Amino acid sequence: MNAALPAVEVLRETYARIAATRMADLPVCNTALAVETIGFAPADGPAEGERGWLGILLTPWCMNLIWLPASPDRLAAPGHTRTHRLAGERYSFIGAEEAGVGRFEMCSLFSPVFEFADQDSACCVAQAVLAQLRTGRDEPAQPSRRRLFAGFAAAGEGTPL
């Protein structure tokens, strides 16, 4: 994971700059939240032999799963999607590119993020999402984020979409 740390820090710094410039004062932003990278850890990608880091990027306007590949060769082009399988479910990640960060893929979890009263509650939900995605259960796949969040609601940990 050490190799990912600089990339994760660059991602956080880049989005902190975006929050302070392009997104500053836009009504879509939740002023109770700040940019934070959460739970990045080594993971397998959607293609055979593909490695990288999966975690969550929290911003005042969204919470996204982020795939940072060890090698950008197989990434979806910006604006195009690619399917990742996590904990028996299929999730569509969209290709993205930001100056300084390079190319990566993201999957929207919450956008906008007004349901969070503060940074701690948003971070707790992000950590719960990652914990559920990393359980490794292998069930029939359904392309649904609703099922993921329905589990949190049943446990009193969040609100289903």
What ranges have pLDDT less than 50 throughout 5 or more consecutive residues?
138-143
The helix/strand series, from N terminus to C terminus, equals HEEEEEEHH
Main sheet: strand order: 1-2-3-6-5-4
Q: How many domains would you count in the coordinates?
A: 1
Superfamily (CATH H level) name: [NiFe]-hydrogenase assembly chaperone, HybE
Radius of gyration: 15 Å
Mean pLDDT: 86
What CATH architecture do you see?
Answer: 2-Layer Sandwich
CATH topology: Yope Regulator, Chain: A
Shape summary: globular
What portion of the residues fall into strands of 2 or more residues?
25-35%
Number of DSSP helical runs: 3
Biggest sheet, in brief? 6 strands, antiparallel
SS-derived structural category: alpha+beta
Structural description of this entry:
- The protein has about 160 residues and is α+β, with helices and mostly antiparallel strands.
- It has a single domain (about 5-155), classed as [NiFe]-hydrogenase assembly chaperone, HybE (Yope Regulator, Chain: A, 2-Layer Sandwich), CATH 3.30.1460.40.
- Helix content is about 25%, strand content about 30%.
- It contains 3 helices and 6 strands, in the order αββββββαα.
- It has a 6-stranded antiparallel β-sheet, with helices on both faces.
